[in-house]
Design goal:
By secondary structure, the protein is mostly helical. It has one domain. Helix content is 74%, strand content 0%. It has seven helices and no strands. Helix 2 runs antiparallel to helix 3. The termini are far apart.
């Protein structure tokens, strides 16, 4: 059975399932940020654990297919090396899972922080949707909203 699951989770199917899998978490963050479901399933370690399991699976599949991981460190040396790494589908899917996990983490942090400052959930919709699509820009929009509720500007917290 484990071998069937392993063979079923190709890069294409994993891409499909990971993209669909994060949508319920984002739905809870955007529409029900103060619910118990959101508290226990989204702002906890649960979604990050699931995405980490997918990442580890892809890492293992890449390792067993003799992927050269030492070449990954060359991405810091030039932009051409980075584009060459993204031409490899294994590296690309691992990056995509990384991207989804970080954006989901930032979205859950936004909701947790907004609850601390009692920010109206209506004001969170736009920053959360933007965070889902282009993470850092959504965080910037949230920070701008947070200034008005916190009544101060902090560069750190």
């Amino acid at each position: 059975m484990i071998e069937q699951i392993y063979n079923f989770l190709t890069i294409e199917s994993l891409y499909y399932w990971v993209n669909l899998g994060v949508l319920p978490f984002w739905f809870l963050l955007i529409f029900f940020p103060q619910s118990y479901l959101c508290k226990y399933f989204v702002t906890s370690i649960f979604p990050i654990f699931l995405l980490a399991a997918c990442y580890i699976l892809m890492f293992y599949k890449s390792y067993t297919s003799m992927y050269d991981f030492s070449n990954n460190f060359s991405l810091y040396l030039s932009f051409n090396n980075l584009t060459n790494l993204f031409s490899n589908s294994s590296f690309l899917i691992m990056f995509w899972i990384h991207f989804l996990a970080i954006n989901l983490f930032v979205g859950s942090w936004i909701v947790s922080d907004a609850q601390k400052f009692q920010i109206n959930k209506i004001h969170l919709i736009i920053p959360l949707v933007i965070t889902y699509l282009i993470g850092p820009v959504g965080l910037f929009f949230y920070w701008f909203i947070r200034i008005f509720y916190a009544r101060r500007i902090n560069l750190y917290d």
